[in-house]
Design brief:
Helix content: 55-70%
Shape: globular
CATH superfamily: P-loop containing nucleotide triphosphate hydrolases
Number of helices: 9
CATH topology: Rossmann fold
Distance between the termini: 11 Å
CATH class: Alpha Beta
């Protein structure tokens, strides 16, 4: 099974790109969705987060207060690393399990922090969704309603643009309009189908 890692900085457009691949019937395994699933009420990860960060990160209905947790995690590197130590092993395990179950001609594995992730060795190729840092900042401010200081901290907490591009097998330039992005996705989809078919024939 050909596994394509899809990554990019926060607010670079990863979700839009992965949705375009999904339109072709390609299985998409999104680690952000997995991260949400594993912290639902009653899940072990939520209890671990409560123990580490306190009741203040738990909303009145018992769910995770993502905004408060994000504030704590991005304001303090030690807190961010503690959160990653809780979540990342569980995310990796669930990602591998869903990949095995998904099938498909090839798979898209969406990993926002792929540069720093152990999942980097799990995928066969890496597609980086790239955009200008100012575009990234503008989208983040518009999407999440963060202050500019908080948005800049969130961007700075991730791998740099150069670090992401250094691991890329392919790059999708997402600074243009949606039609241009869709054209790039279509070209990669056709190439990945060919590569997957060549791999099956080689076996």
């Amino acid at each position: 099974m050909l596994k394509i890692g899809l990554t990019g900085g926060i607010a670079s457009g990863k979700s839009a790109v992965s949705d375009m691949f999904a339109e072709y019937g390609v299985p998409v395994i999104d680690t952000d969705r997995i991260a949400r699933d594993i912290v639902r009420p009653g899940m072990p990860a939520l209890d671990e987060i409560r123990q580490r960060f306190g009741d203040g990160v738990i909303a009145a209905d018992g769910s995770l207060d993502r905004s408060e947790l994000r504030r704590l995690a991005f304001d303090n590197e030690q807190s961010r690393k503690a959160l990653e130590a809780i979540l990342h092993p569980k995310i990796r395990s669930e990602t591998v399990a869903r990949s095995k179950a998904a099938g498909g001609p090839y798979q898209i594995i969406v990993v926002p922090l792929l540069v720093e992730s152990a999942l980097k060795s799990f995928v066969d190729r890496i597609v980086v969704v790239d955009c200008d840092p100012q575009t990234q900042l503008r989208r983040l401010l518009s999407r999440d309603g963060e202050t500019i200081e908080q948005a800049q901290r969130m961007i700075a907490a991730q791998a740099s643009r150069d670090e992401r591009l250094a691991i890329a097998s392919d790059v999708i330039d997402n600074d243009g309009d949606i039609a241009d992005t869709r054209k790039q996705v279509e070209e990669l989809h056709r190439r990945f189908l060919d590569e997957a078919e060549a791999g099956r024939e080689a076996k």
